[in-house]
């Protein structure tokens, strides 16, 4: 069924996956270059924008770590690690004045290329961690 050269295909696939993981693992968050994405979750908070920004910057968010922040523009970029099932993600968080408090826009960007239910599930998981941090539940 398989030719004698099928091992070459296997090696090529393994090398491609290895290179993908290497690229994903070495990408760094950059708050100054962060831009709102088409995929965003928006949260509203009664906190003042500076207070919300400070709380998010210092709060532990479980498996999500702060990669970079830009205080002047109130942008934070959190990251999730590369795993066996994911290349990992960056979560740009834009903290803006809105209404009587703050509007927080949470974006999502894969470290490489990714689609499917893991993307949506991870985005919602991160947004829930942000909500808990804003409520002071961490």
Topology summary:
Layout: H1 6-26, E1 40-45, H2 49-58, E2 65-70, E3 75-79, E4 89-98, E5 101-107, E6 109-110, H3 117-134
Antiparallel strand pairs: 1-5, 2-3, 3-4, 4-5, 4-6
Task: Offer a quick outline of the entry.
The protein has 138 residues and is α+β, with helices and mostly antiparallel strands. 36% of the residues lie in helices and 26% in strands.
What does this structure look like?
By secondary structure, this protein is α+β, with helices and mostly antiparallel strands. The protein has one domain (6-134): Alpha-D-Glucose-1,6-Bisphosphate, Chain A, domain 4 (2-Layer Sandwich). Helix content is 36%, strand content 26%. Strand 4 and strand 5 form a beta hairpin. It is elongated. The termini are far apart.
> What is the structural class?
alpha+beta
DSSP summary, beta strand count: 6
Give the N-to-C terminal Cα separation. 56 Å
So what's the overall shape? Answer: elongated
User: Helical amount among residues, as a percent range?
Assistant: 25-40%
* Radius of gyration over C-alpha positions, nearest whole angstrom: 18 Å
Classified in CATH, the superfamily is START domain
Low-confidence stretches: none
How would you sum up the major sheet? 6 strands, antiparallel
The SSE string, one letter per element, is: HEHEEEEEH
CATH domain fold name = Alpha-D-Glucose-1,6-Bisphosphate, Chain A, domain 4
CATH architecture: 2-Layer Sandwich
